Target: Deferrochelatase
Amino acid sequence: MSGVSRRGLLGGIGAAGAGAAAIGFGAGWAAQGSEPDDAGSAPTTFDLYGEHQSGIVTPVQDRLHFAAFDVLTDDRESLVALLQAWTVAAAEMMAGRPAGPDISSYNAPPDDTGEAIGLPSSRLTITFGFGRSLFDDRFGLADRLPEALVELPHFPGDNLDPARSDGDLCVQACADDPQVAVHAVRNLARIGFGTVGVRWSQLGFGKTSTTTRDEQTPRNLMGFKDGTMNLKSDEQSDLDEHVWVEPSDDRDAWLAGGSYLVARRINMTIEIWDRQTLQSQEGDIGRTKAEGAPLSGGTEHDDPDFELAGRDGPLIDPASHVALAHPTANNGVRLLRRGYNFVDGSTEIGRLDAGLFFLAYVTDPRSHYIPMQTQLASKDRLQEYLQHTGSALFAIPGGIAPGEHVGQALFA
Ligand SMILES: C=CC1=C(C)c2cc3[nH]c(cc4nc(cc5[nH]c(cc1n2)c(C)c5CCC(=O)O)C(CCC(=O)O)=C4C)c(C)c3C=C
Ligand SMILES: [Fe+2]
Model:
């Protein structure tokens, strides 16, 4: 594996630390870049630097640790210093190295918490975002607030917990090993101590979407294949149309190459769902449970035929989830979904506190999320089993150039 193992680094990192540069610690431990394992095989390590941030079209990893932060200072320079430090540490961790150079001095806390030593990079990606509240008067950013970074409206059925919603900054860490994803968020929080505090965080397992075609479609906790019609990384013109921001004025020029991330914690009443007949479950989704094929016939990747009539009306119920989420019912809109299953223990009445942590990257939430969610919230048969308990919207700056920090154009 060319992705680097942290194994054996304890002995050598001190020497490397002495030469830590702004673009990375311990250069020479590993090559940067989306490194293939062997010639032609899938990458095992992703690069922080590039045209777009990693963790958006990157092949979806198995695990997630997502955190929203509040900035605790009013000092713009401290915020910029934090973003610089986060960028350097993120590049190191994505390369499979410790978050900082000094992990062996006895007289100071180590620059890395240690729990990922010996683990490979596990395809770690770290994606940063800025919430609407960052653009208040504290940092002189009010005139750079993009018009699309709106406050999401209240949707029918929302039961949002403010302690699981919003935030000045976000970090999405995805990896194939949960310990690597948690390590990334933990070390960024440690680096930010005194400047930022974690507002809320969410663990996820079992991706519910893919961005590539060579993988089996994963399943959500309702047992259905999820991600069949997701936007894929090779659909360049659709990504340009539906995911990447097209800056329109001075307020969002800094977002070139970026996107908007909608994060929704969606609880499922799983025990009630599990008592529904297979026919009813399939009718709610509009696809078969085993194969994921449209109820109008064919196999998983065949297009649904929403007109095809059965004995009692259309074979795909117009109130099913896929009928209402399909581009034909949404002005041609597509989303890049990147969500995860979650189970956060159980409730006081013994029900699983479980569901889908919905993550979607869009070019503009006003055209690409709000109308679709408005429609789903009022008409979708699935809605009976869902409750949205957390919500946030973040502007995701474009890619980072070597030597720069995430969101640098915003502070220029
Ligand atoms: C506002 C957007 C969406 C929310 C919220 C949402 C929640 C949600 N979805 C599922 C399960 C499935 N969704 C599927 C397809 C699908 N869902 C959305 C949007 C939202 N889903 C879109 C845009 C699509 C694609 C529609 C299309 O183009 O046909 C599917 C079918 C398989 C697939 O294509 O992915 C399932 C299954 C759950 C369980 C859920 C909330 C918990
Ligand atoms: Fe969906």
